[in-house]
Design goal:
By secondary structure, this protein is α/β, with parallel strands linked by helices. The protein has helices spanning 3-13, 30-39, 54-62, 100-109, 140-149, 182-189; strands at 23-26, 48-51, 67-68, 78-81, 85-86, 92-93, 112-115, 131-134, 155-156, 167-168, 171-176. The chain has a 5-stranded parallel sheet, sandwiched between helices. The chain starts with a helix and ends in a 16-residue tail after the last helix.
Amino acid sequence: MTQDELKKAVAHAALDYVVEGKIVGVGTGSTARLFIDALAGMKDRIVGAVASSEDTRQRLEGHGIKVFDLNEVDDLPVYIDGADEISGEMHMIKGGGGALTREKIVAAVAQKFVCIVDSSKLVPVLGRFPLPVEVIPMARAYVARELARCGHAVDVFEQDDRPGGLMVQGIPLFRLPRAVVAGEIEQVLATPGIRLHLGKTADPE
């Protein structure tokens, strides 16, 4: 099977976790987009969805699926999303598309997080691609200096209002050109102004 065929296969398999008559949380990215396409086939059997990004919202609405604001939802049985990388120990990196803050909020509200990945996302060591860092706007210059002091020459996204954009949902994004190794994690996380970085889940399904 090609990678696209593998993505479609896992996207369709995720439909088994959708609770009929309820609202489903939907992630962001190429696999999530394929899941939305598959979800459209059962849209009359769900109440609607919560979107983790504007890209996801637009795709859901394009299929005629009602999108709810998370503040309107008090019962979210499942959140379904992909990942950028996942190791054999079930550690994963998410947020490559620049929507990690909203993704983690929706995942936190949901009773269950189902991560859909194909075999191409399995890696022996995490960190083969640049890692996005979401930053509070007023701290952008400070965070850039602090990350540079840790040895990370950051790049700044310049695309607005798109996954990977400089201002995705109003959040500036930097991209680290290399992975943050274990000894640097505490130092990076302690920098005021950084929102969320690396995603790890203990028990994804």
